[in-house]
């Protein structure tokens, strides 16, 4: 599996794409592969504050229901509307299918996340 170098990763298998104080969050290819066919995604309403490491939603597949964890803290400013009708997009294009956009409270906290090399090592362990 190839993990894009421009993203940061968590040990819980979420990715985050940073653009200043705004970040897109999704799940990794490894995560979607482990889940199997995704059939439903429950996401927070815009305006909700999320805290790093805390659950911000759930993802349901034919195998299981799993929690989604926020890589960083901030305010949800947008949810991906396409996931309501097409949750399977997570399986088809995991690194292009963001779930939420968050206005980060501390963009510098990204330094504590994994880079693609570190995440690759994690998934092989």
Helix proportion of residues, in percent?
A: 10-25%
Tell me the series of helices and strands, N- to C-terminal.
EEEHEEEEEHHEH
Euclidean distance between termini CA atoms: 14 Å
Biggest sheet layout: 6 strands, antiparallel
Alpha-beta content class: alpha+beta
Give the overall shape, derived from the CA principal axes.
globular
Tally of separate helices: 4
Instruction: Give the rounded overall mean pLDDT.
Output: 96
The fraction of residues assigned to DSSP E strands is: 35-45%
Task: Give a structural overview.
The chain is of the alpha+beta class. The protein has helices at residues 29-35, 82-85, 89-92, 116-124; strands at residues 8-9, 14-19, 22-27, 38-42, 49-50, 55-61, 65-69, 74-79, 100-104. Strands 1-2-3-9-8-5 form a six-stranded antiparallel beta sheet. Strands 4-6-7 form a three-stranded antiparallel beta sheet. The longest helix has 9 residues, at 116-124. The chain starts with 7 loop residues before the first strand and ends with a helix.
Notable characteristics:
six-stranded antiparallel sheet; 4 helices; 125 residues; alpha+beta; 9 strands; 19% helix
Summarize the helices and strands and which ones pair or pack.
Blueprint: E1 8-9, E2 14-19, E3 22-27, H1 29-35, E4 38-42, E5 49-50, E6 55-61, E7 65-69, E8 74-79, H2 82-85, H3 89-92, E9 100-104, H4 116-124
Antiparallel strand pairs: 1-2, 2-3, 3-9, 4-6, 5-8, 6-7, 8-9
Summarize the structure.
This protein is an alpha+beta fold.
């Amino acid at each position: 599996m190839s993990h894009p170098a421009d993203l940061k990763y968590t040990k819980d298998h979420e990715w985050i794409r940073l653009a200043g104080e705004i970040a897109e969050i999704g799940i990794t290819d490894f995560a979607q592969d482990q889940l199997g066919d995704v059939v439903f995604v429950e996401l927070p309403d815009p305006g909700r504050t999320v805290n790093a490491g805390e659950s911000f939603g759930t993802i349901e597949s034919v195998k299981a229901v799993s929690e989604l964890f926020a890589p960083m803290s901030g305010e949800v400013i947008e949810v991906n509307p396409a996931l309501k009708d097409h949750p399977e997009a997570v399986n088809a294009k995991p690194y292009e299918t963001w779930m939420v956009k968050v206005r980060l409270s501390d963009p510098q906290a990204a330094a504590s996340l994994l880079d693609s090399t570190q995440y690759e090592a994690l998934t092989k362990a």
